[in-house]
Design brief:
The structure holds two protein chains of two kinds. Helix content of chain A is 65%, strand content 6%. Chain A is mainly alpha-helical. The chains are: A mainly alpha, B alpha+beta.
Chain lengths: 350, 368
């Protein structure tokens, strides 16, 4: 009886150190943040926060659409619209809303209004970043892993070189890359100018809303690819050499061996790397904070950046916590969906 | 079409280390050749060179009189079965078998027909949609064979195909491979370190040691007339017993003074004029050519170290003085009373003993 009971508690006992750590540093802070979201707690304030219900969520997530029909002054003229501001100023329903963006449906103009357009822009920016950096970084990592695994001499040295950016502090890497991206003195513009014999004019990489995010994508992929390379390399080395021999005897070209042996053999590893990279990408903060400060014109602000800006710099910790909680739920939902789709597709294949 | 193979002074070096040290061999179309040898003798490397998976450092490899040294494996039209089976884990049985045909851009209908045929030959039809992970060892082995036969290869290469199977299954698969060869009549090269596989399957056995061929011959030739001590010791279970001695004169003519008999000499049959008096000799004794007797009736006596009772037959291993390994004796029905630790005498049929000189080469008249 006693033995059986102890056997039932044994797994829990073994899991306890990790569980306690998780509870203390993940679950508890999250629950505390959850409580904060229902208050108006300031970061450093002698006054305790007051319960405000769902006000923080309402501010964060309120979106409205304003549909306008065109006003035509003359028959052939282009349609013109009344200024949004003139419509919302006196309408109590639009109180606190600011424009986020506009769409056209035929002749109609739809203006999206939000109480916190900066958050929604940041959300878009973050997913855009992930969408760009994950394929780039994972492809780079796979390429590096294949190179390192090709049996070239000095494999260990190359592996160390490719991995070295990972061990550097992101702040330092960001500062260095900010120099590289500099419009007038940066190595990148100098190189482009020299290689094109002056045809390519200097680009203000971090000062232009169109290039700022791609610039951060490139440096982030460079910094992170070494880590994914190591994981992919392990997966690569787990594939039996005899499979490649068998495929050669079956007449598979190098590309076919990659397609029919390497990729299927690394399926689990690649999925793992994609998930890990996506999660890391969705937490983008340091690069933005050091290199652009969210600018130019909010084009590189990310959700984490917004959370820190509100919660720490503006000392509105309750609102910062709200951003974090909503973002957590979004990512959780995203990953669950991803897993379900993956499982379904795996069933279709097998 | 079964191909003939010609190996002409084939060599292989990794860096400065020579692994294959000049192998020449001719293989007739449809022949079942078995490469045997201890681990590291280069037999697998040679097989991979024939397959095209390893470069040939020097020498010529010819298939049907065409030099194929620089051909890639697919062009050589070989089928190969690997030790670990090397089945594509994400493909079903039929996809595994049809993969080569698919890469060769055969029509869907042709692939279907040929895969179906291979599946039915190997009795795999009910398993066609299974993944390799759902198959037993023997079934995986059959899929690997199916993948090789579906391409109608010129030459079949087997690289220790049965070493991952348990003993019972190994015997069964051995028989199936033998039957398959009788049915398909392909040229087969089969690498193994298991001499039972070699003896049962081969038309001719090639014995390797240290990157060179030590002897080529039919299983019976190798058993009855081993060309050297290595082959003599490698072929046959239990291993041939060896007694060392020196050439000496006896009353009846040439003889050998045996270390195990305290230097007493025994007359040898045949002509030993090539060997100088006093030169070292080794006698090789097959277990079935020895008998036990009371210790006082013979000049060889020792202790029984172990009895191996296999049911149909029993072998006694007898430790003799000045002899490194115990000598095996096949017991007839009469000596069942023998127990381990008992002292016993040993007699052998000198007419059937193998005689090896100091370099290990056979000088028996029977070895010619």
């Amino acid at each position: 009886m006693n033995a059986r009971r102890s056997r039932r508690f044994q797994p829990l006992l073994f899991g306890a150190p990790a569980m306690v750590g998780l509870a203390l540093f993940v679950v508890l802070p999250f629950l505390m943040a959850l409580v904060l979201t229902f208050t108006d707690q300031q970061l450093i304030s002698p006054e305790p926060g007051v319960f405000v219900g769902l006000r923080n969520y309402e501010r964060l997530l309120s979106i409205r659409a304003l549909v306008q029909a065109p006003e035509r002054n003359d028959v052939a003229g282009t349609p013109s619209f009344a200024r949004v501001r003139s419509l919302t100023r006196h309408e109590p329903a639009y109180l606190g809303y600011r424009p986020l963006g506009e769409l056209r449906f035929g002749e109609h103009r739809v203006t999206l209004l939000a109480k916190d357009p900066a958050f929604l822009t940041a959300l878009g920016n973050t997913f855009l970043f992930a969408l760009m950096v994950v394929p780039l970084q994972c492809t780079m990592a796979l390429g590096l892993a294949l190179l390192v695994n090709a049996g070239v001499k000095g494999q260990t040295i190359f592996r160390a070189i490719y991995f070295s950016p990972v061990v550097m502090s992101m702040v330092i890497v960001s500062v260095v890359w900010a120099f590289l991206f500099d419009k007038d003195l940066g190595l990148l513009n100098q190189a482009l100018g020299t290689l094109s014999f002056g045809l390519v004019k200097p680009v203000d990489w971090l000062g232009n809303p169109a290039t700022a995010m791609p610039a951060i994508v490139i440096m982030s992929a460079w910094q992170g690819a070494g880590f994914q390379m190591l994981i992919l390399l392990a997966g690569l080395q787990g594939i039996s050499q005899e499979l490649y021999d068998a495929a050669r005897i079956d007449g598979a070209s190098m590309w076919q061996r990659f397609w029919y042996i390497t990729l299927p053999g690394m399926r689990q590893t690649i999925i793992f790397v994609l998930i890990v990279t996506t999660i890391a990408a969705l937490g983008l903060f340091t690069q933005v904070d050091v290199m652009t400060g969210g600018g130019p014109r909010g084009s590189t602000a990310t959700v984490m950046f917004e959370a820190v800006r509100h919660g720490v710099r503006e000392e509105n910790i309750a609102y910062g916590a709200t951003i974090s909680v909503v973002y957590f739920l979004l990512i959780t939902a995203f990953i669950l969906l991803h897993q379900i789709l993956l499982r379904r597709s795996a069933k279709v294949i097998s | 079409m079964p191909a003939s193979l010609d190996l002409c002074d084939i060599r292989k070096s990794f860096g400065s280390t020579e692994i294959i040290k000049g192998v020449s061999l001719t293989i007739a179309p449809g022949e079942f050749i078995v490469f045997v040898g201890p681990s590291g003798c280069g037999k697998s490397t040679l097989l991979r060179m024939i397959a095209g998976l390893e470069d040939i450092t020097s020498g010529q490899l010819r298939f049907d009189d065409v030099v194929v040294n620089d051909w890639d494996p697919a062009r050589r039209r070989i089928g190969m079965v690997f030790q670990s089976y090397a089945l594509y884990p994400h493909m079903s049985v039929e996809q595994n078998i049809g993969f080569g045909l698919k890469l060769a851009k055969k029509s869907k209908a042709e692939i279907m027909v040929r895969v179906d045929q291979a599946l039915s030959v190997l009795q795999l039809t009910p398993l066609r949609h299974h993944k390799p992970s759902q198959l037993s060892g023997g079934q995986r082995q059959r899929v690997a064979i199916g993948r090789a036969i579906v391409r109608n290869p010129n030459v079949f290469l087997f690289d220790e195909p049965l070493s991952n199977l348990d003993a019972a299954l190994r015997g069964q698969m051995r028989m199936e491979i033998g039957k398959l060869h009788q049915h398909l009549k392909n040229t087969v090269i089969y690498v193994t370190h298991d001499q039972v596989e070699a003896m049962t399957l081969a038309d001719r056995i090639v014995v390797f040691e240290g990157g060179v061929i030590r002897q080529v011959g039919t299983p019976v030739e190798l058993y009855d007339h081993p060309a050297n001590r290595f082959v003599a010791g490698f072929i046959g279970t239990p291993t041939m017993g060896f007694l060392s001695g020196r050439v000496a004169a006896t009353a009846q003519g040439e003889g050998v003074a045996l270390d195990a008999a305290g230097g007493q000499a025994i007359t040898l049959p045949g002509d030993l004029r090539r060997v100088a008096h006093g030169a070292a000799l080794t006698l090789g004794l097959r277990p079935e050519h020895c008998v036990v007797c009371p210790p006082d009736q013979t000049m060889l006596s020792g202790t029984v170290v172990m009895l191996e009772r296999l049911g149909a037959e029993t072998f006694a291993f007898i430790d003799l003085p000045a002899t490194p390994a115990p000598v095996a004796v096949r017991l007839d029905g009469g000596e069942r009373s023998l127990v381990a630790g008992q002292r016993t005498g040993l007699r052998f049929d000198i007419e059937r003993a193998h005689i090896f000189d100091a370099d290990g080469n056979s000088i028996s008249s029977s070895a010619s």
